[in-house]
Amino acid sequence: MRTAILSIPTDALGGNRTTALRWALRLRSMGWDVRRADRSLARAPIGKVELIVALHAVHSQVEVQGLFAQHPTAKLVVACTGTDIYELGDEAQPLLERADRLIVLQAHALEELSPAQRARAHVIHQSMPPRSVPTRESLDIAVLASLRAVKEPLLPAQAARLLPARSRVQVLHVGAALNEPLVEAVRLEQLANPRYEWRGNVRRSEALCLLGGARAVVVPSRSEGGANVITEAFALGIPVLASAIPGNTGLLGEGHPGLFQPGDAEGLARLMLRVEGEPPFAEELTRRSKERAALAAPEREAAAWLDLLQELGFAG
After folding, report:
1. Does residue 228 contact residue 15 with C-beta atoms inside 8 Å?
2. 22 CB-side CA count, 13 A
């Protein structure tokens, strides 16, 4: 059995953690022994490691250097996050250059790579098995975003404040508390805004239940590598309202009718109101998500990983 080590930043939460856990299961299903690169690995030495998979080119650099000191012949695969591609590109370069193969989560990210890096890159979309969707009896708008400034987590609440009194839209937000000033801002927003509720960090099953029962999901980020929540919405057939940034349009398409400019609360409010009051608009967004559900198929992700591993010389 071949051995792979998965390097994940210790503070990885939300989509990155979900991705890492899913990829570990994917590799195990292909016959790999997958270990997490942490202190427990040092306490339990293993034999020859043939593959190192790093999730986050910037935050995994030091750990990967240490792993190569122990396993110099291992192949390196680096998965590029939104931070690597769109925020800290220069800092990401050492690991991107060293990698035998790169993974990006949507096709627009390829444009941010050098020609040489692009030649080594694979687009692997996030996957989710089909799930039953709860009956939608409310006008809840879901937000699945940790409290980090780059995620613009309060923008949907600010948009909800702009809705007319007749609207029944409610914004339900789940996500980890990673920034204390934002936690305080969220708490104050809940007190002042009857249309907004933050439920904190919840189990993935609860987050997917919220997503599946929502009228739409909002992805308001200023930067994304390829948000898990968008492909989850595809799998569930849920309408997506999203900021018009490359990480979102790379999944949704440039002509997606649910796009708004980053930071534009008024634009988002108009879209929310259309989801509530214009059934043809909501139906069009639902249709687009269902049409893109194939991107989230687990078989597609498995085939992409198989292609990558075969390129590295790991046949069958």
Report:
1. yes
2. 21
* CB-count exposure of residue 132 (10 Å: 0-12, 13-18, 19+): exposed
Q: What pLDDT does 177 receive?
A: 87
Which domain, by its residues, includes 10?
3-126+297-311
Whether 134 maps to a domain, the answer reads: no
Torsion over CA: 100, 104, 110, 113 (sign): negative
3-state secondary structure of 160: helix
CA of 167: how far to CAs of 164, 185, 240, 250, 312, in Å?
A: 6, 24, 19, 31, 55
Structural domain count of the chain: 2
Q: Are 118 and 189 contained in the same domain?
A: no
Dihedral, 282, 230, 18, 177 alpha carbons, nearest 10: -70
Give residue for tokens 């609360």. Answer: 265
State how far the alpha carbon of 165 is from the alpha carbons of 162, 168, 188, in Å: 9, 8, 21
* 106 touches 181 (CB < 8 A): no
| 111 and 231 housed in the same domain | no
Q: Is the dihedral of CA 57, 59, 62, 67 positive or negative?
A: negative
Whether 302 and 296 have beta carbons less than 8 Å apart is answered as no
**Same domain membership, residue 220 and residue 237:** yes
pLDDT confidence of residue 195: 97
Give pLDDT, residue 136: 59
pLDDT-flagged residues of the chain (< 70):
10-14, 39-45, 132-138, 316
Tell me, yes or no, whether 144 and 194 share the same domain: yes
Question: Quick one: how far is CA 216 from the chain centroid?
Answer: 17
